[in-house]
Write a structure and sequence with these properties.
By secondary structure, the chain is an alpha+beta fold. It contains 27 helices and 17 strands. The longest helix has about 35 residues.
Length: about 800
């Protein structure tokens, strides 16, 4: 009776296994694989297209990937048919590439140029671009045709990840993508990030359920579980998208306030963690939303060592564009489009941050007492995102380690936690002597070096006036209607000193210095709030108002935050003596551009008028000797300055807008051809790999079941394969004849187990007696031990060869 029940149970178990591998299971498996592969493929494609702004690629170019995924899963289990069809597809692809090679190469170059431009805009790293040989109306077709090949490769990769449960391979792709996005700031839409996140969840869920090395996690219903859990995750994904669309509509132009505030707060917290140890002051890097009571704490900010102590303005943060909520940098595209200009300026030894030093070196003002001095900075608690450097800086920006090199306004660290130790060379205080520098420079205009400098300066001058005199229309109207002291229609030339006095006079007479002011209301324009509502504030308020006023007058200007090394600080300080600059020395000021001389700090906050040395005006050029750069001009109504501000010659226009697009050389064409061939060979190997790995899986499947008499010979044949691979030569005759060869390499215990396994194998082949489960387990255990010992005896390269070339396991 017990034997009968055992036979029935065994029969039911076999039927269940057949059902698992039957049509129903295949159908569920097909649906699950297509769903997960398709989602992962869609997420990766959208992330890449969005991240690199590949606008020339049509969405239709993504469709072939979906067909490939459906095809690869539909022919699952029919390896011969699948291999034949894939080989045919690869052959047709090669034929298409040969026939349309010009179109494909043009598409490759188009996508390369778009990726290079996006990377250049976000990082300042310039990648070579190429001239396109096809007509502009074919750009979209060429880019989409090439992307067809990319999408097919991505789809194939996604299929491999899902079909063979390679979740690790997915993370190898996704994690570098996220790291690249964080490093470059090239982030796709939040929707695409969410889609990629949920796609990864799908893959991890699928791999977890199909842990084949430990057996099915949920028995014979694992395919149904995969689909069920996948549908749950899909519902969560769809719900998330609906919520995101409610709080941040795709067609909207601004984020939901709650989300924006959360993102803003999180960004500030991350920045504080990265760059600030202990607060030394409450300046906000030009951000008006965080302004409140000004606190200048008696906490060490910088430790400075000079071989000749001198008072200096150390600028850190520099704001270039005024908005109602904060000062920001110039748009990254501005620097990208001007890359040619700055490249040739730097080649000609013209550096915007070193102008005062350069002019000083060319004039008689530079004497022995004003040679370069050595300065060492230890940033104790100040914001380490910025390197605090003086206007007299002699060290070029590219001589610093780990700094952004494509900005002309400040020195910013690229290290994750910023930079806290650095050295540079500088001149002794020059900002108070710029009138003398102007006079000496004018007198030396006939010198070759001066003439070359002035030619380069005229190009940079045009960039400065184009980008640092602009203000929003609403702000211009505010100044025009509210500040009667400024006449926009004024045509007479105004000297810099006259403009400085007018701005200072207005601020001094109409506004009050107060360190404890109320925060600006949300969505309220900061300048309007300051000039019309409170009429009181501190350095941030005064410097912002002055910067905008100078721009209104047609004088290039920028907002600056940094630290002052005052005459009081250096008084009595010996050479190489450490000076501690506390948070009480933190300050904000405006800087204006003096034609041909460079950027000069201007003090506009009343309590600070006498904290630094006064400008020496005694050497100002006068009369017929006065150079044009001594004077500024009022802007026209169109905000286009005249005179010096209009110096944009043909050479500058050509340089500024130039993009390094070149035709491909023969070497580059061969390189691309070799890459294509290698890609095709890799694709062919992947097809071969799929077939061989499937053979390995079939071999493993032949070890499982309940008919032990059929399983034992399969296990033994694999044991002999492993022994031959390990160097045991093949022999004819009885299997026991291998014992002598095995004794030279293996232990006695292993030989004894081998002899027992040989007897069990002979029994399964030649005897009518049944093989017990214990005997099956014994042979299988011996097989696993043999494989494990063989793998352990190999080094890493041998293991790779064993698995992916010889396909032993």
């Amino acid at each position: 009776m017990n034997d009968h029940l055992q036979a029935v149970g065994s029969h039911i178990h076999i039927l269940n296994r057949k059902a698992e591998s039957g049509q129903g299971a295949t159908h569920w498996r097909f649906m699950g694989n297509v769903l997960i592969s398709g989602l992962l493929y869609t997420a990766l494609v959208l992330n890449i297209l969005s991240m690199f702004r590949l606008e020339d690629v049509s969405f239709l170019a993504v469709i072939p990937g979906f067909f490939l995924i459906a095809f690869l899963n539909n022919v699952f289990g029919r390896s011969t048919l699948r291999f034949a069809l894939l080989a045919s597809f690869l052959f047709l692809l090669i034929i298409f590439l040969v026939i349309q090679h010009k179109l494909m190469i043009a598409g490759l170059l188009l996508i390369n140029n778009q990726i290079a431009e996006t990377i250049g805009i976000h990082t300042g790293f310039m990648i070579k671009q190429y001239a396109i040989s096809i007509d502009a109306d074919q750009y979209r077709l060429a880019a989409s045709s090439f992307w067809n090949c990319v999408s097919v490769m991505l789809a194939f990769g996604c299929h491999v990840i899902v079909r063979y449960r390679k979740a690790l391979l997915m993370w190898i792709v996704i994690l570098p993508l996220f790291v690249f996005q964080i490093y470059t700031g090239m982030t796709p839409s939040i929707y695409h990030h969410v889609l990629l996140f949920f796609s990864a969840l799908f893959v991890v869920n699928d791999s977890f359920i199909h842990r084949t090395d430990r057996g099915p996690l949920f028995g014979n219903r694992k395919n149904g579980v995969v689909l069920s859990v996948s549908l749950i995750v899909l519902v969560l994904c769809s719900s998330t998208f609906l919520i995101l669309n409610m709080i941040e509509p795709i067609s909207g132009y601004s984020k939901n306030e709650t989300i924006a505030d959360l993102q803003y707060a999180l960004t500030n917290k991350v920045a504080e963690f990265r760059y600030e140890k202990e607060k030394t002051n409450t300046f906000t890097q030009g951000d008006f939303r965080n302004l409140g009571e000004l606190k200048l704490l008696d906490v060490p900010a910088l430790e400075v060592i000079m071989d000749q102590p001198t008072s200096l303005y150390l600028r850190g943060y520099v704001g270039s564009v005024y908005t109602k909520e904060r000062w920001t940098d110039l748009d990254q595209r501005v620097y990208y489009d001007s890359h040619g200009l700055f490249y040739w300026l730097n080649k000609s030894h013209f550096h915007a941050l070193n102008q005062l030093n350069t002019v000083s070196d060319m004039t008689t003002v530079a004497s022995k007492k004003n040679q370069n001095i050595q300065i060492t900075i230890h940033n104790v608690n100040a914001n380490s995102k910025y390197l605090y450097v003086p206007y007299e800086l002699a060290t070029r920006k590219d001589q610093f380690d780990k700094v952004k090199t494509f900005a002309d306004s400040k020195v910013m660290s690229t290290a994750f936690f910023g930079e806290r130790f650095y050295k540079y060379q500088s001149k002794v205080n020059l900002v108070t002597k710029y009138p003398a520098l102007a006079s000496q420079l004018y007198e030396a205009k006939n010198h070759v070096a001066v003439d070359e400098y002035l030619k380069n300066e005229s190009h940079y001058n045009a960039f400065v006036y184009e980008n640092y005199t602009s203000i929003p229309r609403e702000t211009r109207l505010l100044l025009q209607n509210h500040l009667g002291m400024i006449k926009e229609e004024q045509e007479t030339r105004r000297s810099y000193e006259q403009a400085i006095e007018e701005v200072r006079s207005y601020l001094r007479k109409n506004l009050t210095y107060n360190m404890n002011v109320e925060p600006v209301q949300k969505d309220k324009d900061f300048l309007m709030h300051f000039l019309e509502d409170t009429k009181e504030g501190y350095a941030t308020h005064f410097a912002t108002a002055a910067t905008v006023m100078f721009r209104y007058l047609g004088i290039p200007s920028r907002y600056v935050e940094g630290y002052l090394i005052t005459p009081k600080d250096v008084k009595g300080t010996s050479p190489f003596e450490k000076m501690t600059i506390n948070g009480t020395n933190a300050h904000a000021w405006t800087e204006i551009y003096i034609d041909e001389i460079g950027w000069i700090p201007i003090e506009v906050t009343p309590p600070y008028y006498h904290m630094m040395e006064k400008t020496d005006l005694s050497n100002y050029p006068t009369g017929a000797a006065a150079p044009d750069h001594h004077q500024s001009v009022a802007p026209s109504s169109s905000n286009a300055p005249s005179g010096k501000q209009e110096v944009i010659d043909r050479e500058h226009k050509k340089t500024k807008k130039q993009k390094p697009k070149e035709k491909m050389s023969l070497l580059e064409k061969w390189t691309i051809a070799i890459i294509i061939v290698i890609g095709l060979l890799l694709a062919g190997y992947m097809l071969y790999l799929m077939k061989k790995r499937r053979d390995v899986r079939k071999r493993k499947e032949s070890f499982e079941g309940t008919n032990y008499k059929e399983l034992i010979p399969n296990l033994f044949a694999y044991i002999m394969l492993l022994l031959h691979y390990d160097g045991i030569p093949k022999k004819g005759g009885s299997t026991f004849s291998y014992v002598e060869a095995l004794e030279k390499k293996y232990s006695k215990e292993y030989i004894q187990q081998f002899e027992q396994v040989v007897k069990i194998n002979q029994k399964s082949i030649y005897s009518h007696h049944e093989i017990t489960e214990e005997q099956y387990i014994q042979v299988k255990h011996f097989m696993n031990q043999t494989l494990s010992d063989l793998v352990k005896s190999k080094n890493m390269l041998q293991r790779v060869k064993m698995k992916f070339y010889d396909f032993i396991y």
